[in-house]
Amino acid sequence: MFLKADGTEVWLRSSRRLPYLSLAGVIETSEEYSSIRSKLCRTYELLPGVASDDAFLVLELEASGAALIFCARPDKHCALLLLGKFDLSRERREACTVLEKLVEVVGNCVDEISLRAGVTIQFEVVQPELAMGDFDLQLH
Predict the structure, then answer these.
(1) β-bridge pairing 77-83 and 66-72
(2) Would you give the DSSP letter of residue 112?
(3) pTM: predicted TM-score of the whole model, two decimal places
Protein backbone atom coordinates (compact mmCIF):
# COMPACT_ATOMS: atom_id res chain seq x y z
CA MET A 1 0.00 0.00 0.00
CA PHE A 2 1.02 3.59 -0.59
CA LEU A 3 0.66 6.10 2.22
CA LYS A 4 -1.24 9.27 1.30
CA ALA A 5 -0.68 12.63 2.98
CA ASP A 6 -3.76 12.13 5.17
CA GLY A 7 -2.37 8.84 6.51
CA THR A 8 -4.61 6.48 4.56
CA GLU A 9 -3.08 3.75 2.45
CA VAL A 10 -3.55 3.11 -1.27
CA TRP A 11 -1.91 0.62 -3.60
CA LEU A 12 -1.01 2.61 -6.67
CA ARG A 13 1.72 5.22 -7.18
CA SER A 14 1.31 7.97 -9.74
CA SER A 15 2.78 11.39 -10.37
CA ARG A 16 -0.64 12.73 -11.22
CA ARG A 17 -3.98 12.41 -9.52
CA LEU A 18 -5.30 9.08 -10.73
CA PRO A 19 -8.61 7.69 -9.52
CA TYR A 20 -9.03 3.93 -9.55
CA LEU A 21 -11.22 1.20 -8.10
CA SER A 22 -9.60 -1.17 -5.61
CA LEU A 23 -10.78 -4.61 -4.54
CA ALA A 24 -8.64 -5.42 -1.51
CA GLY A 25 -8.24 -8.67 0.36
CA VAL A 26 -5.86 -11.49 1.18
CA ILE A 27 -4.17 -14.44 -0.44
CA GLU A 28 -5.19 -17.50 1.57
CA THR A 29 -2.44 -20.11 1.61
CA SER A 30 0.28 -21.46 3.87
CA GLU A 31 2.72 -21.16 0.98
CA GLU A 32 5.50 -18.57 1.23
CA TYR A 33 4.94 -15.34 -0.68
CA SER A 34 8.20 -15.80 -2.62
CA SER A 35 6.77 -18.96 -4.20
CA ILE A 36 3.47 -17.24 -5.06
CA ARG A 37 5.38 -14.28 -6.53
CA SER A 38 7.48 -16.60 -8.68
CA LYS A 39 4.34 -18.19 -10.16
CA LEU A 40 2.80 -14.78 -10.83
CA CYS A 41 6.00 -13.56 -12.52
CA ARG A 42 5.91 -16.54 -14.91
CA THR A 43 2.34 -15.71 -15.95
CA TYR A 44 1.96 -11.95 -15.81
CA GLU A 45 4.07 -8.92 -16.63
CA LEU A 46 5.60 -7.46 -13.48
CA LEU A 47 5.23 -3.66 -13.40
CA PRO A 48 8.09 -2.39 -11.22
CA GLY A 49 7.53 0.85 -9.32
CA VAL A 50 3.81 1.05 -10.10
CA ALA A 51 2.66 0.01 -6.64
CA SER A 52 4.09 0.06 -3.16
CA ASP A 53 4.85 -3.65 -3.55
CA ASP A 54 4.46 -6.06 -6.49
CA ALA A 55 2.12 -5.17 -9.34
CA PHE A 56 1.22 -7.50 -12.21
CA LEU A 57 -0.61 -6.56 -15.39
CA VAL A 58 -3.49 -9.05 -15.53
CA LEU A 59 -5.64 -7.65 -18.32
CA GLU A 60 -5.63 -4.69 -20.70
CA LEU A 61 -8.96 -3.81 -22.29
CA GLU A 62 -7.65 -2.06 -25.38
CA ALA A 63 -11.03 -0.92 -26.66
CA SER A 64 -11.71 1.13 -23.53
CA GLY A 65 -8.17 1.79 -22.33
CA ALA A 66 -8.83 0.14 -18.96
CA ALA A 67 -6.45 -2.24 -17.21
CA LEU A 68 -6.65 -4.66 -14.32
CA ILE A 69 -3.55 -4.77 -12.11
CA PHE A 70 -3.05 -7.36 -9.36
CA CYS A 71 -0.97 -6.06 -6.44
CA ALA A 72 0.41 -8.20 -3.65
CA ARG A 73 2.57 -7.77 -0.57
CA PRO A 74 4.80 -10.25 1.30
CA ASP A 75 2.22 -10.32 4.13
CA LYS A 76 -0.20 -11.75 1.51
CA HIS A 77 -2.51 -8.75 1.43
CA CYS A 78 -3.54 -8.08 -2.15
CA ALA A 79 -5.66 -5.90 -4.38
CA LEU A 80 -7.08 -5.96 -7.87
CA LEU A 81 -7.07 -2.45 -9.32
CA LEU A 82 -9.25 -1.21 -12.15
CA LEU A 83 -7.47 1.64 -13.91
CA GLY A 84 -9.17 3.70 -16.56
CA LYS A 85 -12.69 3.70 -17.86
CA PHE A 86 -14.54 0.41 -18.22
CA ASP A 87 -16.48 1.27 -21.37
CA LEU A 88 -18.72 -1.10 -23.31
CA SER A 89 -19.97 1.44 -25.84
CA ARG A 90 -17.86 -0.11 -28.63
CA GLU A 91 -18.92 -3.68 -27.92
CA ARG A 92 -22.04 -5.42 -29.06
CA ARG A 93 -24.11 -5.59 -25.94
CA GLU A 94 -26.36 -8.38 -24.93
CA ALA A 95 -28.94 -8.06 -22.19
CA CYS A 96 -26.31 -7.42 -19.51
CA THR A 97 -25.44 -4.12 -17.92
CA VAL A 98 -21.96 -2.62 -17.67
CA LEU A 99 -21.86 -3.56 -13.98
CA GLU A 100 -22.71 -7.20 -14.73
CA LYS A 101 -19.98 -7.28 -17.39
CA LEU A 102 -17.45 -5.75 -14.98
CA VAL A 103 -18.29 -8.36 -12.34
CA GLU A 104 -17.85 -11.10 -14.96
CA VAL A 105 -14.46 -9.75 -16.11
CA VAL A 106 -13.21 -9.32 -12.53
CA GLY A 107 -14.47 -12.77 -11.54
CA ASN A 108 -12.72 -14.37 -14.50
CA CYS A 109 -9.46 -12.56 -13.66
CA VAL A 110 -9.60 -13.59 -10.01
CA ASP A 111 -10.27 -17.20 -11.00
CA GLU A 112 -7.32 -17.13 -13.42
CA ILE A 113 -4.93 -15.55 -10.88
CA SER A 114 -5.99 -18.10 -8.25
CA LEU A 115 -5.51 -21.01 -10.65
CA ARG A 116 -2.13 -19.86 -11.95
CA ALA A 117 -0.77 -19.04 -8.48
CA GLY A 118 -2.36 -22.10 -6.84
CA VAL A 119 -3.98 -20.03 -4.08
CA THR A 120 -7.35 -18.78 -2.90
CA ILE A 121 -7.89 -15.03 -3.11
CA GLN A 122 -10.52 -13.57 -0.80
CA PHE A 123 -11.52 -9.97 -1.52
CA GLU A 124 -13.14 -8.13 1.38
CA VAL A 125 -13.32 -4.44 0.41
CA VAL A 126 -14.28 -2.52 -2.73
CA GLN A 127 -13.49 1.17 -2.66
CA PRO A 128 -12.52 4.04 -4.92
CA GLU A 129 -9.02 5.40 -4.35
CA LEU A 130 -6.92 8.32 -5.52
CA ALA A 131 -3.24 7.73 -6.20
CA MET A 132 -0.67 10.46 -5.85
CA GLY A 133 3.05 10.03 -5.48
CA ASP A 134 6.40 10.27 -7.19
CA PHE A 135 6.04 7.69 -9.96
CA ASP A 136 4.77 8.34 -13.48
CA LEU A 137 2.42 5.48 -14.32
CA GLN A 138 2.59 4.40 -17.94
CA LEU A 139 1.08 1.21 -19.27
CA HIS A 140 2.02 0.10 -22.76
Answers:
(1) antiparallel
(2) H
(3) 0.81
